[in-house]
Amino acid sequence: MNKHTATSADVAALAGVSQSTVSRSFDPNSRISVATRQRVFEAAEQLGYQINKAAQTMIKKRSDLVGLVTAGLEDPFRSEFLHKLIIEVQNCGLRPMVMDVSDRETIDEELHGLIQYQLSGVIITSGTPSENIGKAFIRHGIPVVLVNRTEHSDEADIVNLDNEGAGEMAAKAFIESGKTNLVVVRSKKPSFSSVMRVKGFLNYLAPFLSGDKVNATEVLCDAGNYDSGYQIADKILTSQHKPDGIFFCMDHIACGFLDSAKRLVSPNEMSAIGVIGCDDIALASFRAYDLTTIRQSSSEIARASVETLLNRLQSPTSAPSKQAIPVELVYRSTLAKPQRTNIE
Amino acid sequence: MNKHTATSADVAALAGVSQSTVSRSFDPNSRISVATRQRVFEAAEQLGYQINKAAQTMIKKRSDLVGLVTAGLEDPFRSEFLHKLIIEVQNCGLRPMVMDVSDRETIDEELHGLIQYQLSGVIITSGTPSENIGKAFIRHGIPVVLVNRTEHSDEADIVNLDNEGAGEMAAKAFIESGKTNLVVVRSKKPSFSSVMRVKGFLNYLAPFLSGDKVNATEVLCDAGNYDSGYQIADKILTSQHKPDGIFFCMDHIACGFLDSAKRLVSPNEMSAIGVIGCDDIALASFRAYDLTTIRQSSSEIARASVETLLNRLQSPTSAPSKQAIPVELVYRSTLAKPQRTNIE
DNA sequence: TTGTAAGCGTTATCAC
DNA sequence: GTGATAACGCTTACAA
């Protein structure tokens, strides 16, 4: 019907009130007589009026958009995490604006462009963007939450998984199961998570290694995906010194390995080799794999990330927070839960 | 340094030009002397100036945001598709604002809220939103692209997969392989894609069915996921009349079925049963499954969807378009490519 | 090519 | 509780 979209002035005219009264009617905190608000709402309804967010943003100097910076969405864990983030952001009345920075030359430049949108905040879940870009946001008054990216920042809030704890947990599980010849596999390209996971793994093992009873090797595969796991199996299973416990920094790599292993060693032999993955993606629980793994709760991180952002919006000047979300060992068939522990 | 974010006026002051000259300098279509533009850019750089999108949107009456309406992101095909959409939207200088409408009571109401953002367009990939909501967008001048949702709309542009073609293709492959006792499995809850896939499957089979040589049964499983496929295997493989060809409307269901089948029938027996999935998600090519399937190119649909939107933005009044993206049969080990066809 | 000035549709600050 | 009125930062005629 109406050529142009209705504005608050149109509503005001129809309701027979001033434009500012219309504005107030849509603000729950404004005290307005019930009758007036009622009349305004009816007029608004009739005209199909919707607040113009651009105008609102201009005056409030803040939109209700939250930037979600991601990369590598082909990794199911990341994509699951993004999904959870989207839900969480929505649930608190904000709008997720997603930015994928995979394979981008000019990441920092493009990210800089987000400043134009007067975002309520930015949640950075990719390792790619430089440190500087976070600072640029903060300089423009846009809160930044760094997820699983770094140990420390004196400006941005931090939410991490307990990556190191995950590594330790895997190492502990192997030791408790009496495994002595251990391998830890991560992608060649170092990511914050994988490096910390390996670190935790080796740290836990350190005292055992010196006793010479246990040894541990770090193996690098090409990438963090199924195919790399498939390939790396040759290297691991045909070595002279076959391991009896393998920790993969990502479930996907572990699954590739498991499929590949079926060609290389007998089921019987394979059953003697403990395998632990990391993330607990959906695939890990499929019967074809039934992978023992360290569960990272994507919902928990998402919840914590958004909560952190909301806290920051409430108290913009408080000191940056930092938290690590705990992880959990899920026993499945690739490493059975030991009946009794071998160590105390 | 500067307390407040720099505006074009600040830049103008520093560059010694008028505010409108600054504005023009950032518009590639404006003709401005090289020297002036240079001077403006330097001043902008120095002040860390960024265009304020809210102000820009207000005057242009259109933001560069595109609404991506999704649901069921736990389905890997959907999540992969969303990923591709995000990339495509980014690549044409627009910004994806994602809205997940899964498990939402008040979908239409919430979607209505998107009107507030002066979106450049909305791409609806979920079946949940009602027809009306699309009309509401269009009434407000926001172009709508419907993806895999419906056969017809006289206002919105449509991009579909060739779902019916996919079903036909599967049926044809079975017939060519000499399979005669066929089953088609879809999720209990009807979705546009699965219903059309089944329709295509049965349509192609119709002439053979009447000859009584071939028969086909439709089986419903609980949901469109791995577990439902796992469960449905019992029903299918323990029936008196075991099928020799099964078409699953989603790869995920097929994979669950395949894992479950390993418990129920011997590998030898299983090798006589042809299985075809649909979508060609990453999982389908894993060695554990190596599933013959109908590939739907998520990149292609994403590309087509965004292209459709851009076309619409260029010519707002042209008649709504409709296209179907072709699909492709990928032979893997669950149904081998026949050497010669049995029919002409 | 550049400057001046008039909006765009809200919210916020005053009066009343 | 309500109504004027002044921003907010940009684009775009219109003038020069």
Automatic annotation (TrEMBL), chains A, B:
Keyword Transcription recorded: yes
Keywords: DNA-binding, Repressor, Transcription, Transcription regulation
Keyword Transcription: yes
Domain HTH lacI-type span(s) in chain numbering: 6-60
Signal peptide, first to last residue: none
One function term, GO molecular function aspect: transcription cis-regulatory region binding
Record-level GO BP terms: transmembrane transport
A Pfam family hit: Peripla_BP_4
InterPro entries linked to this entry: HTH_LacI, Lambda_DNA-bd_dom_sf, Peripla_BP_I, SBP_2_dom
PANTHER family reported in the protein's UniProt record: LACI-RELATED TRANSCRIPTIONAL REPRESSOR (PTHR30146), RIBOSE OPERON REPRESSOR (PTHR30146:SF95)
Record protein name field: LacI family transcriptional regulator
Organism listed in the record: Marinomonas rhizomae
Phylogenetic lineage: Bacteria, Pseudomonadati, Pseudomonadota, Gammaproteobacteria, Oceanospirillales
